[in-house]
Amino acid sequence: EGRPLSELKALSQILTGGQLDQTETLQPVSKSSFMTQWKLLSKKYPRSFQASVEEDNHWYREQLSQAQRNKDPRAALMLLNKLIAIDAGDPSLYKMKIGHLKTLSRLGETRDAVAKLQQVIRIDPMTLAELATTLSLDSGSLDEFNQYALSLANRAVEAGPSEPEVWWNRAHIHRRAGNIPAAIADLEKITQLQPTNYRPWYELALLKLQSDDREGYDQICQHLSDAIPPSGTPIIEEFISWTSALGNAKSVDWSELVRR
């Protein structure tokens, strides 16, 4: 429309939230630069620079994507709070916020965000269990985040005791917190729910070896060989063979494994 190139560049920065560097990579525009450009253009074209809620939403989401690419959790949190004020019914915003709060070790705010997420969507046992695992830390101890994650996982197990995945998630949290006996107990529950599923037996074998329980490890390998019929699926057969090979199981007929 015959507008100066400087104005077109400024408009591009406003619309994308960034500007291209010498390598043609989009870099975020600083807040001060953005506000300067905005004020200049809005003063010259006042009727064209009245941002709608949809435009604000788009702008903040663009900025959020850049903050996440730059691994800047504080900037991401600030933008997420603005987005939640615009679109409080979007559960993905709360989930992202929870992740960034965990990164910054802000447990109190994390609890608040989890509570608000539960107001936005119905949290079924599986969703709760997955959220608990997301919040856990691989610290080898029952620190405050693992305590909170475990409290959520316990609720998931209570709400869905027949769902193997809730036990999987709690076992994973126990393991990350260094409580191997509790992790073993949860995995054993899964084997009761899914006796022919090779995965919990494999995880159990690893933990038995880790806790130096050779007898328990040999029993698991014997079960895998005897109770799970040949599947014809290479990955399953490889898991069964690999599980027995990890600790050189004494109870296994190796010729039978080779035949499978």
Describe this structure in words.
By secondary structure, the protein is an all-alpha fold. It has helices at residues 5-16, 31-44, 53-69, 73-86, 91-103, 107-120, 125-135, 144-159, 164-176, 180-193, 198-210, 214-227, 234-246, 254-259; strands at 18-20, 26-28. A two-stranded antiparallel sheet has the order 1-2. Helix 3 (53-69) runs antiparallel to helix 4. The chain is elongated and about 85 Å long. The model has no long low-confidence stretch (mean pLDDT 86).
Chain-wise SSE layout:
Blueprint: H1 5-16, E1 18-20, E2 26-28, H2 31-44, H3 53-69, H4 73-86, H5 91-103, H6 107-120, H7 125-135, H8 144-159, H9 164-176, H10 180-193, H11 198-210, H12 214-227, H13 234-246, H14 254-259
Antiparallel strand pairs: 1-2
Helix pairs in contact: 1-2, 3-4, 4-5, 5-6, 7-8, 7-9, 8-9, 9-10, 10-11, 11-12, 11-13
Helix content: over 70%
Q: Mean pLDDT, as a whole number?
A: 86
Which residue ranges are poorly predicted, with pLDDT under 50 across at least 5 consecutive positions?
none
Instruction: Kindly report the spatial arrangement of strands forming the biggest sheet.
Output: 1-2
- General shape: elongated
Structural class: mainly alpha
